[in-house]
Amino acid sequence: MADIEYDLVVVGGGVLGTFHAYHAMKKGLKVALLEKDAMPKGATVRNFGQVVPSGMNTKWQQYGRKSLRIYKKIHAKFDISVRQEGSIYLASNDDEIQLIEELKEINRANDYTSILFTKTECLRKYPGLNERYVKAGLFFPEEITVEPRTMIGRVHKYLKKKGVSIFYKAKVIECNALKNEVSTQLANGRMLMSAKVIICNGSDFKTLYPELFSTSDLEVSKLQMMKTKSQGDFKISGSILTGLSIRRYEAFAECPSYLKIKSKEPMDSLEKKWGVHILFKQAMDGGVILGDSHEYADADNIDDLGFDLNMDIDDLMLTRAKEIFSLPTYEIEQRWFGMYSQCKNSDIYERTIDRNIHIVTGIGGKGMTGSAGFSKQNIQQIFNI
Hints:
The protein has 12 helices and 19 strands. Strands 4, 5, 6, 12, 13, 14, 15, 16 and 17 form a 9-stranded mixed β-sheet that branches. Strands 1, 2, 8, 9, 10, 11, 18 and 19 form an 8-stranded mixed β-sheet that branches. It has a two-stranded antiparallel ribbon with strand order 3-7. The mean pLDDT is about 95. By secondary structure, the chain is of the alpha+beta class.
């Protein structure tokens, strides 16, 4: 039996799909959000929970700044685990100092607040920071963290209160564009009818339109992360990003000195081989999340990445982390990996099929930060409202 009652069906309950549903709801549309699992368990819940527009290029920083406002607006009405404690990039040498100084000027021109910290100020704000490592820092006071394993569920609860229909264990096996509507067929036999469908499928390229994805420029990144046991009374505020992050994040690629500094890096380091950069973020339970690494495979070869954790990668990340922060304990409580999809030649993957089926995926590592702001604009474009 078909439900011919939705303006929009969103396939995929991760952060990108969820915020498409949110903005459609805000526009007064009747929305159904479909999640194939009991709850989202992809990249949305397997990350640090750092919302850091500061790390993005100018275009995506604008989306990220809109996301900050959206997260804070929802949190003011309904607790979604937002903490505004800021983000800092720690420079460990003169090259990294030059980059954060240049980024500060870019942000000044973009009217985005950032504050240069001296070594002494960094050490004062972040107890346990190794004085031999840090030389200076760039602090972004407006940025937030969320708890990734709880945030998305809480946003879903908020959407339900606002009238969005959310279906879990709702695996979509087929979408068909009819004359003026789209039928969405679920594995459980149910069919939904809607004016439009948006597919935010993350890195699931085997279920819907596999032939399309196999010939695309999409690739998947596998990231290893871990979390320590509780640090007791010891506290780290906000997001800590380090010199390796400065050398990796898109925002710094816009700095005048970036290419010259990157050209001096050794090409055969283990950090380069495994795409390692070191981040710290303390969870609400007191454990510190740290990582991460990046291994890549084309969309058609995801299985090549395997399901194992490479302990050599974890050991390298722990060694580097200990050189930066002295924590009360580095005993590890949890280890995991996440996978996100990204495009090799563009910043996001968008494809429209038969006018009313819109695929939106491949947002890469920008998902937690950029999805809320990007989705607002995308809903306006898709529905011309």
